[in-house]
What we know:
4 strands
Amino acid sequence: MLDKYFGIRAAGSTLRREVTGGLTTFATMSYIVFVQPTILAMTGMDFGSVVLATCISSAGACLLMGFLANYPIALAPGMGENILFAYTVCGTMGFSWQSGLTIVLFSGLVFTLLSLFQFREKIMDVFPLCLKNAIGPAIGLFIAFIGLQWSGIVVLNNATMVSLGDLKHAAPLTAIAGFFLIATLMAYKVNGGILIGILFTAGLGLLLGVIPLKMPEFSWSTESFFNLGIHELLERWQDALLAIAIFFFLDLFDTVGTLVGVSSQAGLMTEDGKLPRAGRAFLSDALGTCIGALCGTSTVTSYIESAAGVAAGARTGLAAVVTGLCFLGAILFAPVVAVVGTNVGPAYYQALGIQGAFVPMYPAVAPALIAVGFLMLAPLGRIKWDDITESLPAFLTIAMMVLGYGITEGIAAGCISFALIKTLAGRRQEVHPIMYVTALAFLLRYAFLK
């Protein structure tokens, strides 16, 4: 029955390879079960509810991809989008998490409509290649910067804003040990290296007293489920539209990159470079985002870690179904997730003698953020650094996103500078008209909304 539905033998695979591939993919991306609730809890969301939302939405999206599109591509809340949700939408912009979930839902609905009407390619043509290759790495550096703060390697400094922390303290040493374990496992191509690193760091933190030797308060909750808010979006519709657009484009970039990369590795692309059932894959991704928003988590997107499952032999959607079932099983380990997500910031800053505000610290999760940030830097090599009209917008995207501490600011700087430098260089024919509109919209936002 499975072979008939998924076409396992026709794809040159076996039941064993599909199951192994699904398990392998889960091992490589399961770190999100630990990271996602830790990040979203900073917005005031209930930790236990986000754990449930993460596992359920990931499972639902994986099942959609498996049954609807029949591709071995797994989905879960995306790294980058979760930082955008917590730090920019709910942080800098000041939206409540309920409004943030509504913004994510609207971005998912837009993605769904465009998937149904096949407008994806036209939308992708709007954004220049230099920005496509810069936004992901910029978010990666932003994530790594947060990881350095959460580890205690980087701390607040009144004179220079940030400075090196006390590397003799157990908290940063624990995080450093965890990071280099992850890096070593990556060097040996061990599947699930990030997950192993998280668990190792948590265990070491417990032994060294960095993480308290007591079970943190944890309870199951569905507080975030179907808990949306529309009033703030109506009152601040300009900011809301901007956030919806950014979530949409990030999801689109992630999905296109993952589908092309994983499908090429699996040999699923046709000779003319097209991907069969691409519309169904996009639709699965879009519906996954909608499910995630309704459950109470940020954008659900396709994971490039699915390539590990393909390397293990997966070729059909059955592997994605197996990964989805693993996410449902992960719900049972929620108390362990709560231990890993313990905030030890106050104790560390007190030990350093720093009074007042402190940065939250999660030394068990921090190494994963640094490692994921590092992995997101690969597209930088595809930027034409010898062409200033391409490299300058990319540079400003990265610089303003990390130093300006905001994903929106980075994208705005990239869009404005791209339209401006191309025009000044007499190459305005290389700028899509919509990019001029986008750049103007960002300029007006800074002129009137700041």
